[in-house]
Design goal:
With 310 residues, the chain is α+β, with helices and mostly antiparallel strands. It has helices at residues 22-36, 50-59, 77-86, 97-110, 140-153, 190-196; strands at residues 5-6, 46-47, 67-71, 89-94, 116-120, 133-136, 159-163, 174-178, 181-187, 211-217, 224-233, 236-242, 248-257, 260-268, 274-284, 287-296, 299-309. It has an eight-stranded antiparallel β-barrel with strand order 10-11-12-13-14-15-16-17. Strands 5-4-3-6-7-9-8 form a seven-stranded mixed β-sheet, covered by helices on one side. A two-stranded antiparallel ribbon has the order 1-2. Helix 2 crosses helix 3. The longest helix is centred in the N-terminal third of the chain and has 15 residues, at 22-36. It is elongated, with a radius of gyration of 22 Å.
Length: 310
């Protein structure tokens, strides 16, 4: 059976580069370029030794009756091992359809199809509220962006195990080292949900919104779509909307407070005058949801809008 794939990018500090195979460096460099180009999901993966998988499951105290979710599951080895060896039920989530096919085939070979499933899905759109254990081997920035979603969905007592990378201010309850790799464990508590759940970064810092987004907003004449580019500088927000035929509108008076956005957009009307749109939004990982307030013929109008990271 193939060894599980990891979604790792950075080499852990303290591991001499001379001990890292050259092919691993090439894979990591390729992965870094893809994420910098727009957080693509079709990233390559690097094999993870079975003993590390075993150590992750042991650290998470996986047992019969547990419901395990592996976010970025690769070929499904973590989920399959949890089901076959520990009697847990498992779900693997990955955006790459080839990895999902591979995981499903591996599950058949290991005889655990009745206890596992694999979903082709964006992690930031996934529902894992019933998980008792979540395993991760993602990137540092992705861990931080997932942190509020994990704490929002998971119940107190749920365990999170991450291969190599931490969660910023949220310090792990336990860290172990195996074969020059660090594994971190967090146990979800009400205190953590209150202190860390709504803040993907330190209090007062801007949410991670820089980059390109697909904007959508319903209107009486049909759905409005635009390419939205956002850029932060401290707590100030700037950006542009580009609509069909390259029509461009600029964000004005923009601010970011934690994961809350607020800005204004002005548009010249064909019949004269200016339409002013006061917009607010809440960042949730790779999605933004918000409201737009404006006036038409003296009547206030409120519309919902959304954006997904490209």
């Amino acid at each position: 059976m193939p060894v599980t794939g990891c979604r790792s990018l950075y080499l852990r500090r303290g591991v001499p580069l001379l001990r890292v195979p050259f092919v691993l460096l090439l894979a990591c460099a390729s992965l870094a370029a893809q994420w910098e180009d727009g957080n693509r999901g079709d990233v390559p993966y690097v094999p993870t030794p079975p003993e590390v998988v075993e150590a992750m499951l042991k650290l998470g105290s996986v047992k019969q009756g547990d419901i395990l979710y592996d976010l970025g599951c690769g070929d499904g080895r973590i989920v399959i091992t949890a089901a076959k060896k520990y009697g847990a039920k498992g779900t693997g989530i990955d955006i790459n359809p080839e990895r999902i096919k591979e995981a499903e085939e591996n599950a058949k070979q290991e005889g655990v199809t009745g206890r596992v499933r694999f979903l082709e899905k964006n992690l930031f759109e996934a529902d894992f509220h019933d998980a008792t254990v979540v395993t991760l081997y993602l990137l540092p920035d992705v861990n931080l962006r997932l942190r509020p979603r994990l704490l929002s969905q998971l119940k107190p007592g749920a365990r999170i195990v991450s291969h190599s990378f931490d969660m910023g201010e949220w310090k792990p309850d336990k860290t172990v080292e195996i074969d020059h790799r660090r594994l971190h464990l967090w146990v979800v508590t009400e205190k953590a949900k209150m202190e860390m759940g709504e803040k993907p970064a330190k209090a007062g810092h801007a949410a991670s919104v820089d980059g390109d987004w697909n904007f959508r907003m319903p209107s009486p004449s049909g759905e409005v779509e635009a390419a939205l580019t956002l850029k932060t500088e401290g707590n100030r927000l700037a950006g542009t909307f580009v609509f069909g035929e390259n029509r461009k509108l600029h964000i004005q008076d923009g601010t970011v407070e934690d994961n809350k956005l607020r800005f204004t957009v002005r548009r010249d009307r064909a019949e004269g005058g200016v339409m002013v749109y006061k917009m607010t939004g809440t960042v949730d990982g790779a999605q933004i949801r918000g409201e737009t307030e404006t006036e038409m013929d003296g009547q206030p109008i409120t519309q919902e809008w959304s954006a997904k990271r490209k």
